[in-house]
Amino acid sequence: MSKRASKAVEQLTEEEARAELARLAAEIVEHDRLYYLEDAPKVSDADYDALRQRNNAIEARFPELIRVDSPSERVGAKPAERFEKVRHTVSMLSLGNAFSEEDLADFVARIKRFLNWPDDTDLIFVSEPKIDGLAVSLRYEKGKLVLGATRGDGAEGENVTANIKTLRDIPQSLKGVPDILEVRGEVYMSHADFAGMNERQEKEGGKIFANPRNAAAGSLRQLDPSMTAKRLLRFFAYSWGEFSEPLGASQWEILQAFRKWGFPVNPLIRQCRSVADMLAFYNDIQHQRASLGYDIDGVVYKIDDLKLQDRLGFVSRSPRWAIAHKFPAEQAESTVEEIAVYVGRTGVLTPVAHIAPVTVGGVVVRNVTLHNEDEVARKDVRVGDTVVVQRAGDVIPQIVRVVLERRPKGAKPYKMPDICPACGSHASRQINPKTGEPEVARRCTNTLSCPAQAVERLRHFAARDAFDIEGLGEKTVQEFFDDGILKEPADIFRLEERYAAGDKAIAAREGWGEQSAAKLFKSIDARRKIGLDRLIMALGIPQVGETTARLLARNFQSWDAFYASMKSDNAMADLDDIGGIGDVMATAIKNFFDEAHNREALERLLKYLEITDVAAPKTSDSPVAGKTVVFTGSLELMTRSEAKARAESLGAKVAGSVSKKTDIVVAGPGAGSKLKDAEKHGVTVISEEDWMKLIGTP
Ligand code: 9MJ
């Protein structure tokens, strides 16, 4: 980078800006050339990024000065909401797999047999590391990159051109190439960039990716190309699609051509002449795997000679002339030092084994998730056990099995705590009343004030479909929570009071002036009066979304009626009476109100609220008002959800099964057991047409 001190963008005159943009365009182009063509960058990535950022900042200030050859134009325009589909002119291949030396020997023998060549003839293969990323196809027309597409199903992929254009590894234009050229290869993310990205995502509360492959896929499929640009995807070329002139006579020759044109080609590729050579390559790559800095999951062998490739052709979708030799999942032994329990944002308790640090596939593993208590029981993992740890396909590490011979005497079976480690409330597994089986997850029942769940709950509480408090989004909730200002919903309504009383924590917030405070307090104030349905929705009761909240509100009509029922012994019966609330949901609602912490947090909140009743559905003038209706068979005049909504709007309850409480069964063609149940209980059965007449829609 130029060493001369740069003037702040804000202080540039128009003339200086024009000169600076010209200088930056030239400098960036030169760095790109060094980077892509010479493989010899002269500046660090950070310095390079700084140049681009300066260029962008100047362009933002002087948009009329943007040059036609501006480096920022290398980032394509924003694509449409969804990616457009593109058909590959030549299908993108999938490879068959070999998992052993024997599989590999079979592969080579098969080829010789097919060609009718004696066993002892030499065949040349190109051996390549198998990058664990995403295959893409890059189409150049007259040397210009015109299309970047994902593999998709091999025949049809997605148009990700704008994102592909942000990859520094991929040239935007080529000289001395056929008019039509499709270069194919793998987009991937290095271990270092993956770690850096997840670190940033964690800080910003963004999505954490499980492995570099997922991160690369996520980045490439970003709708906003500037997001892809931030994530530093890389590329290796190894194959091709359509071309208007031959690219070479062999795989090896073509890879050399790719390299000459400026594409990264993996430096570890080799030509091999025998199974023994190929195995030596495989072992060599396997040894280097941990230090490569990017994920590979095996090696690929390809017949070098393209004429032979042609003769060999395909078996179904895979070429007969190539195979992927996969690495076995990497395993290592370690000992379990402790089984800890973590509470996720939604209150689910997850047991995690803390093990003595061990390197598996080049990564130091200290923690291994045990997923849930059933999994711990199935594997019978105990503290003190020696365990086999595996990273398969670079997914998160897992415990494969316990080495029972080495179990210490007196090791006790693990028992999951039934109190939440974050707040001490009861943690339970809900029983599914239908199957009688407990749910897999154990959850903390202190929905409203468990600190582990607080941020998620508060975010949900303030969200648009609940309290809809403008200015209290996820980021602010997180910050207020971190500062100890917000712990539970009631705190939201105490903010202004505390601010007025000079609470330092609130007043001293960075970037938080009088105005933003006043604005937030105003939007909070506007929500002190809230509809019953929104309140119920906001509580975050497991299983209860917008529809159920509305259903509950309409049935109970007032908070007092609802709360009184939920606290009473009749709660289950009352919920059961509402058509559309199944047993699982009813149990979840009941559990919520059974938890004393929830009731306490609720009562603290209620002091600040005026809850408006929800009118019961109009019932007076419809003959189906107050009736319980069951729809069965296929409906032809309305969809089932339409029928249900219509019936409910007329004051009917819609139930899922026929009982003696049912008043009407509406049966379409194909009605089965429910029709029999109706007969059994002596319930009136009518056709869909009769139903329409009954509700006044001929
Ligand atoms: C990877 N993933 O590195 C192929 N691949 O060739 C290499 N994939 C491939 N070659 C034809 N090196 C289809 C897939």
The N- to C-terminal Cα distance equals 78 Å
Find the CATH superfamily of the largest domain: DNA ligase/mRNA capping enzyme
Supply Rg: 32 Å
Portion of residues in helices? 25-40%
Q: Indicate the proportion of strand residues.
A: 15-25%
- Describe the biggest sheet? 7 strands, antiparallel
Average pLDDT score: 88
CATH-defined fold name of the largest domain: D-amino Acid Aminotransferase, Chain A, domain 1
* Uncertain regions spanning at least 5 consecutive residues: 75-81
Indicate the multimeric state. single chain
Which ligands are bound? 5-amino-3-(furan-2-yl)-1H-1,2,4-triazole-1-carboxamide
CATH structural architecture of the largest domain: 2-Layer Sandwich
The secondary structure category is alpha+beta
CATH top level of the largest domain is: Alpha Beta
Count of DSSP H/I helices:
26
Number of domains: 5
Number-wise, the strands total 26
Shape: globular
Task: Detail the topology: elements first, then pairings.
Layout: H1 14-36, H2 45-61, E1 85-87, E2 96-98, H3 101-115, E3 125-131, E4 134-141, E5 144-150, E6 156-158, H4 161-164, E7 180-188, H5 191-203, H6 212-220, H7 225-230, E8 234-243, H8 251-261, E9 270-272, H9 275-288, E10 296-303, H10 306-312, E11 314-315, E12 318-319, E13 322-326, E14 330-343, E15 348-360, E16 363-369, H11 373-379, E17 386-391, E18 398-402, E19 427-428, E20 442-444, H12 451-462, H13 474-482, H14 489-492, H15 495-500, H16 504-507, H17 514-525, E21 529-531, H18 532-538, H19 546-556, H20 559-567, H21 571-577, H22 583-594, H23 596-606, E22 610-612, E23 628-632, H24 640-649, E24 653-655, E25 664-667, H25 673-681, E26 684-686, H26 688-694
Helix pairs in contact: 1-2, 12-13, 18-19, 21-22
